[in-house]
Design brief:
about 200 residues, about 55% strand, elongated, mainly beta, Porin, 8-stranded antiparallel β-barrel
């Protein structure tokens, strides 16, 4: 599914990019004060892979950003992911299988670089502050002493913050591709954005 989405996004960008009349409109997409963009992103390197978890649903997210100035934007974002992990508890020799469902909601601010060499590329970085809500389910049993000893709870929420660096490429007057590295729901994210 993710591969198919990226394939069709690339085909659409190439077809829009080949139109000669769009060359003058590219700069309006990424560098205009007062512009609002909506993005859909997919995490390709989720942070839960560090714990050797299996991906059930990669981190998918929606983001809306508004440019208040040429170099500053503020946005909101939401993300969702599902993973599974198997743990072995040494004292009881129990094998436990868990499913972890996470939701993230947050605010983010971005500073955009004005040092571009081409008009259709936007380099940016910033910080996000949000709330993560995690639901943990035992797939082969119920919550019990092994979970309580390790402080594993069925539901947990926490405030989180992260930083990110990203790049966007304008494919046309209303469509862009984006890539980000950071410490949010995924270490690397790819996305598609539209101007609204």
């Amino acid at each position: 599914m993710k591969t198919m989405l990226m394939f069709w996004a690339a085909v659409l960008c190439l077809s829009l990019n080949s139109s000669p009349g769009l060359a003058q409109k590219r700069a309006q997409l990424l560098f205009q004060k007062g512009q609002t963009d909506l993005f859909m992103q997919v995490g390709i390197l989720p942070t839960y892979l560090i714990d050797k978890a299996k991906i059930v649903l990669p981190p998918v997210g929606l983001r809306a950003e508004h440019r208040f100035g040429k170099q500053y934007s503020l946005g909101v974002e939401a993300a969702h992911s599902v993973s599974q992990k198997t743990d072995f508890f040494v004292p009881t020799e129990e094998v436990r299988e868990y499913q972890n469902t996470s939701y993230f909601f947050g605010l983010r601010n971005s500073v955009h670089c004005d040092c571009r060499r081409t008009e259709n590329i936007d380099l940016y970085g910033g910080f996000s502050l949000g709330y993560t809500l995690t639901y943990i389910e035992v797939l082969n049993g119920t919550f019990g002493p092994p979970e309580w000893q390790r402080d594993i709870r069925p539901r947990r929420g926490s405030f989180t913050y992260s930083g990110f660096l990203g790049v966007r490429y304008a494919c046309g007057p209303w469509l862009s591709l984006s890539g980000e590295i950071g410490f949010g729901v995924s270490l690397v994210q790819l996305g598609v954005g539209i101007k609204i």
